[in-house]
Specification:
Number of strands: 4
Distance between the termini: 88 Å
Radius of gyration: 26 Å
CATH architecture of the largest domain: Roll
CATH class of the largest domain: Alpha Beta
Strand content: 15-25%
Largest sheet: 4 strands, antiparallel
Oligomer: single chain
Length: 181
């Protein structure tokens, strides 16, 4: 009889523990859903966007210091902006090569294009940023942007030094479409 009572007690304890564990999982799930509300309304979850006049990128930074969290978010937003614009420009270059441009496939053209888009980080501005206290840390959000006309000017001042390279870009419809020209 004592063995049955002991097994019944162990079974009841295991059942209670299992039910309690399910409640904790449910609470954790609800907490994770609530965490998404920390994002500011302007934060684009895709990370990168473009409209008719500008390119935008967002990022986050975390630190125990609000200023450091903002610095990290600002820096990463600019890096993401430059990286995505670089991908867009590389797609234009590859399309040029596919359409028969031997100029766009030269080392000089590729280097000039890459050197130009690296300047995006320097020219981009932070259009939105905020640091929010989250437990013992701060979570910062930042949005970097650069106008399409500024990207055009950066490219013109870099690649435009070589008239042939600049002519190849300016005569390409995908390049003009990218920059809204």
């Amino acid at each position: 009889m004592k063995k049955i009572s002991l097994w019944a007690l162990i079974g009841a304890f295991s059942f209670t523990l299992a039910c309690t564990g399910a409640k904790v999982t449910s609470t954790t799930s609800t907490k994770n859903q609530a965490d998404t509300s920390i994002y500011p309304a302007w934060y684009n979850n895709d990370g990168f966007a473009t409209d008719s006049t500008s390119f935008l990128a967002v990022s986050e930074g975390v630190s125990t210091d609000s200023t450091m969290a903002l610095t990290r978010a600002n820096s990463q937003a600019k890096v993401r902006l430059e990286s995505n614009i670089a991908k867009e420009l590389e797609a234009v270059r590859k399309a040029l090569v596919k359409n028969g441009s031997s100029t766009a496939d030269t080392k000089g053209f590729i280097v000039a294009l890459r050197n130009a888009h690296y300047r995006v980080q320097d020219e981009a501005t932070i259009s939105n940023s905020i640091a929010l206290k989250k437990g013992t840390s701060y979570v910062a959000f930042a949005e970097a942007q650069i106008s399409k006309s500024e990207v055009h000017d950066i490219l013109k001042n870099s690649i435009g030094k070589n008239a042939r390279y600049w002519r190849v870009l300016m005569n390409d419809s995908s390049f003009n479409e990218l920059l809204g020209m």
